[in-house]
Amino acid sequence: MAITGAADLLATWEAGLAEAPTGRALLLHRTARPDVDATTLPVLPVGEREADLFALRRALFGERMQVRLACTACGEDMEFDLDAGEFARSLDGSADSLVRVEQDGWDVRFRLPGVADLTAAARTADPRAALLARCLVSAARDGADVAAGELPAPVQRRIAEAVESADPGADVTLNIACPECGAATRAELDIASYLWTELDAWARDLLLDVHLLATSYGWSEPEILALSPLRRRYYLELCADV
User: Fold this and answer.
1) Residue 6: is its pLDDT beyond 60?
2) Which of 44, 72, 127, 146 could make an S-S bridge to 150, C-beta 3.0–4.6 Å?
């Protein structure tokens, strides 16, 4: 993964301000995977995208992620650290994107859902059926082809289990024990939302730095952004001493 420069990150942030969360997540994924065509990213397995975003977070802001949750039992605030690098390594994005289910004469091949599939299915009256229809590659019973709507409930459950096993990173769930009452709190870790929040804070701080340095030295934004973070910080310290 190439480390994106400050100017490119600011452009990503600026573009994301006008986007909904799904659009911002796609912008972040493009930043994480500049080697992949933009039209391909939304159809990659969700777990692969999550692994890419954890890797991007690690590259931009380091390993340590601070997380805050409220205990669902007693309401106590819980603060703890997570390791972005560990998540990036544990969410293996190299698995086969196709799963196969064979049961009682059924032979079903199913594509691991991507973000585009989940988004499209969520807009329908029956998201589960819509997702099944979108991602079903082939289905046959005793050698005869059948449509998605003809799959019985037990086979559909087996497909769901196979997908979850093949793409565990699609649903990153935390299970945290409260230090006060001992009850466990489950919460989904939305890395796209988490990373966007960090990028937003970083961009606003950087623009303030640009303003201060431009005011003090008369430099342009491109000139200031071309400085390393260490040199920018040093010049800011000199401004504060004046």
Assistant:
1) yes
2) 146
Tokens standing for 223? Answer: 């000139």
Residue 176 C-beta-side C-alpha neighbours within 13 Å: 24
Contact 106, 140 (CB under 8 A): yes
| Other Cβ atoms within 10 Å of 45 Cβ, number | 23
Going from N- to C-terminal start, the domains of the chain cover 6-92+172-204, 98-166
Instruction: Answer for the pair 81, 67: CB distance below 8 angstroms, yes or no.
Output: yes
Asked if 64 contacts 171 with a C-beta cutoff of 8 angstroms, the reply is no
3 state DSSP class of 83: strand
From 237, 224, 234, select the one nearest 5 (Cα to Cα). Answer: 224
Phi and psi dihedrals of 151, rounded to 5? -75, 125
Look up residue 238 and give its amino acid.
L
- What phi and psi values does residue 78 have, to the nearest 5 degrees? -120, 125
Residue type, 169: G
- Measured CA to CA, the distance from residue 47 to residue 95 in angstroms comes to 10
For residue range 124-142, list pLDDT tens digits in order.
999 999 999 999 999 999 9
Give 3-state DSSP helix, strand, coil % of the chain, rounded to 5: 55, 20, 25
The 10s digit of each residue's pLDDT in 59-95 is: 999 989 998 888 888 988 988 888 887 877 777 655 6
Which residues face 140 on adjacent strands? 107, 145
- Count of alpha carbons within 13 Å of 81, Cβ hemisphere only? 6
